[in-house]
Amino acid sequence: TKKPPVLQSFLSLVFRRASHLARQQYDVIVVGGGHAGTEAAAAAARVGAETLLVTQKTNTIGALSCNPSLGGVGKGHLVKEVDALDGLCGRAGDWAGIHFSILNRSKGPAVWGPRAQLDRQRYREFIQSELLSTPRLTVLEGSVEELLVTEPNPEEPGHHRVTGIRLANGSHPISASSVILTTGTFLSGSLFVGQTTSPGGRIGDAPSSAGLSHTLRERLGLRIGRLRTGTPPRIVKDTVDLSLTNLHPPDSHPTPFSFLNTHTRCKPEEQLPCYLTHTTPGVDRVVRESLHLNCHIQQDTKGPRYCPSIESRVLRFPGRSHQVWLEPEGLNSDLLYPQGLSMTMPPDVQLRLIREIPALHRAEIHTPGYGVQYDFVCPTQLSPALQVKSTQGLFLAGQINGTTGYEEAAAQGLWAGVNAARSALSMPPVALSRTESYIGVLIDDLVSRGVTEPYRMFTSRAEFRTSLRPDNADLRLTLKGFEEVGCVSSLRYQEAVRVRDGLQNALAALQTLTLSTHLWRKKLPDIGMSESKSTILTGMDLLQYNDVSFEMLASVFPECLSPYMEFSQRLNIEAVYRPHCDLQKKEIERIQKEENMTLPQDIDYFSLPVSLSQEVREILDRVRPSTLGAATRLQGMTPAAVVNLLRYVQHTG
Ligand code: FAD
């Protein structure tokens, strides 16, 4: 599809804004146009809710605040799943990608990480134009000053209901049945450079108003924590000596994120390389010498574990040389993003530091790095639908829930959007299990375990990663997304059904190909089949051999298998994992059963007549897990406590 240029996009937003200002009532209001907010707004509208997206600046909708890249190990899985549920980020990534690569290729395909470096402007352009063409969605530029909530219900002390928002410009309130807050790093945000601190959510952007934090903390009584992150200086490309770096070209065949794209839009000449270089002892020295000038690092020398600053890497691992990736910021951008050099010292010291790296010895900084500290809402106060348990109709998604990263934000945004719309339209909430998706793992981890540092997705967080692969996200989620959730278009659904049927037919064809090992050896003399006895093997059995591919089998049995050549890669992967996935089925069923056993939200855990320690009662009372499955995963739950709780649920339910 042809996308409108930025200016047109911007003008259309302004037009829509003007034409809709009169409206004062929506089903769903989304606050914030970042990665969570845009997915939330689009998903709510797809489900059928009249939706309003309010954001501070319409021209920053879809902005990539930090690294212009999408995906990676674990994060790529989330992008594929968001796409399978008809979200935006996968297609936007395909549109804007300028360096596609699959990370972790040395491991099995279940943990490959699809990733792309992006052109910032194109990404933003795509997201903005998608929102403009989404029916039932209105975009309004403005800063939300206040969240409107009812007084607590005397029958249910502490329980409120959201009724809408009020903007900072003093205009009339806008009401809605559901409100989704996706304010990212903006909630009581402070920016740090050297010894200077200023209020802000991101460089150039004001923080969220104090009114919003006040409502969450004081009126709704939510537990709020504080987190920190940072970004590196942007470097002028022409001033870098690229001959002193190692060149990393993109994959020769770009793999798209979206199941709707069989190839990316990128022409080969629009694929740019990345460059790898390393820090030197001089970098360590500058970090140490400037610690007294660096208030962000003084407050917490360890910093976040994921995406740590160069200061905390130097302090944690003295004397070690660290990788620095120099990544393009866009096709026509003259800037490089130095991944690994996030820093918060004064700008003149930042310049001294980067010049200690040989390839950067004459480099110039375009924008200095900075740190940001912000409030987040402890996510154990949310239900699996991402609704605040104590406030009907209030949903939270993205960095406000203690996560970091665009993909984590997008995944939560989509799911909060779905549930906010369903709540507004009087439909029951829907949940995603950790047995069926990384989105389920992410949400379950957040609401059951909470966070003590910015949460980032890794494949190691998913117990069933051999089933939850990037290649099969459409089969896991698109059908459910259409049939049960209502967030998937019929076009995408039909494509998923076509793929599902094609794969089923291909697997059936492979099963019917039965030959003795002797005959297989004759047909495929190059394969290293070790069986000495002659047994009967199906085509599917054979595909599990390392040196056999679907393409090879199709060349021997073209009449039977060649109709399925478009699925060859998926079939190769399926064959490798099928035996393991079959073994996992029982465990998955057990967890799903536990997830179906709901725990009433009003249980008084302190007087529950079962044997539970005081510590376990306190944990259960604080988190109030919504299912037995979620209770089993709480930190501090003992196996005995789980058994006793199970007995109680079986007895009462
Ligand atoms: P954001 O993308 O931040 O979007 C929030 C939106 O809400 C903004 O559009 C803002 O204008 C709007 N908004 C806020 N308050 C209001 C209000 N009251 N009214 C209306 N609109 C409002 N991620 C990583 O994975 N690795 C990193 O190294 C990394 N470093 C980062 C460094 C910095 C300095 C920053 C700012 C972010 C960094 N991130 C990093 C995080 C990444 O940008 C976020 O995880 C991601 O953007 C979160 O998406 P979000 O939608 O939750 O919030």
Automatic annotation (TrEMBL):
Pfam families: GIDA (PF01134), GIDA_C_1st (PF21680), SAM_GIDA_C (PF13932). It comes from the Eukaryota. GO terms for biological process: mitochondrial tRNA wobble uridine modification; tRNA methylation. Its cofactor is FAD. InterPro entries: FAD/NAD-bd_sf, GIDA_C_N, MnmG, MnmG-rel, MnmG_C, MnmG_C_subdom, MnmG_C_subdom_sf, MnmG_N. One of its GO terms (molecular function) is flavin adenine dinucleotide binding. PANTHER family: GLUCOSE INHIBITED DIVISION PROTEIN A, PROTEIN MTO1 HOMOLOG, MITOCHONDRIAL. This is Protein MTO1 homolog, mitochondrial. The lineage of its organism: Eukaryota, Metazoa, Chordata, Craniata, Vertebrata.
